[in-house]
Structures are given as structure tokens and as C-alpha cells.
Design a protein that fits this description.
Layout lengths: L2 H19 L6 H11 L5 E5 L13 H12 L14 E10 L4 E11 L5 E12 L5 E7 L2 H8 L2
Helix pairs in contact: 1-2
């Protein structure tokens, strides 16, 4: 998978997540369909967390961390900015290397719900690269208890 394809895959999924978070309920069929349509079938995508309580995007402070991450795991790429129209702030807190062939991005996202109450979401997205250095698997973790158990958060 080329770097351009990798970014296209991420952008499509992030856009779908941002759209999904703004809808009501926890109907997962729509987001699953969007994900199926968005990514290369050679990449295996997993989600671990609370259904209906996730969204990811990159902009602002996150851009440098994403460039650093992709330079390590997927080779040099140009990271674009996802323009969101929602009242949501996204920040990539850190990019680090996990296990062998594994890279981790830590996200924080905050916004204001339709009920007027502020919310904060923390999530980790873990990418695994194959022998070729191309991303083969991506997992999003945003279950608070699971994050504490696995990553000491």
C-alpha cells in the first residue's frame, strides 16, 4: 500500500467517524458499512471500546505527531488536515513505537454535546506494519478501563 493510499484510508475512516459521532443512537451498521467502503481490504481494522462513543480526526497540533509517526511506521508521507465543521477539538498527544512493527497514536478529543454538556474522549489507535513496512492492521482503543489495563492510562 502506498503512502498516498494509507492517508486516503485514514482520511476516509476519520471522516466517517466524525460523521457518525454527530448522529444519535449506537447503530453500528452505518459506520461498519462506511469503514468497509473506505479501506483497502488488505488492512485489518479492529475496534475495542464503547459502541457509539468514538471519533478521530487530525488537525492543528496533531499534524507534527502524525508526520513523526508515519515517518517511523509507514515511510515519509504528506499528512493533510481534516477540515471539520463540528465544534470538536482534536489533539494527537503523542506518537510512539509500541511492540516490534507497531506504532501508537494517542488522541484526545473534546467537544460539546447536543445537550450542551462538554465531553472528553481519550483514544489510542495502534497501527501494525508488516515486513514491508506497510500498515497491515489498525486497532482503535477507547474503552477507559481497557486503556488503563493495557497501557497504564
Amino acid at each position: 500500500m502506498s503512502s498516498t493510499t494509507t492517508i486516503s484510508f485514514l482520511s476516509s475512516i476519520l471522516t466517517a467517524f466524525s460523521s457518525f459521532i454527530s448522529t444519535s443512537g449506537t447503530d453500528f451498521s452505518a459506520i461498519n458499512t462506511a469503514i468497509d467502503d473506505a479501506y483497502d481490504p488488505n488492512i485489518v481494522f479492529h475496534f475495542v471500546g464503547q459502541p457509539g462513543k468514538f471519533a478521530l480526526a487530525y488537525e492543528g497540533k496533531g499534524t507534527d505527531a502524525l508526520k513523526e509517526f508515519f515517518a517511523t511506521v509507514a515511510g515519509p508521507v504528506l499528512v493533510g488536515v481534516l477540515d471539520t465543521t463540528q465544534n470538536v477539538e482534536h489533539e494527537v498527544v503523542r506518537a510512539l513505537t509500541g511492540g516490534e512493527g507497531e506504532g501508537v497514536l494517542e488522541f484526545k478529543q473534546k467537544g460539546v454535546g447536543r445537550d450542551g454538556k462538554p465531553w472528553l474522549l481519550e483514544a489510542l489507535i495502534v497501527f501494525k506494519a508488516g515486513e514491508s513496512g506497510k500498515i497491515t492492521e489498525a486497532t482503535v482503543y477507547c474503552d477507559t478501563l481497557y486503556l488503563q489495563e493495557r497501557f497504564g492510562k
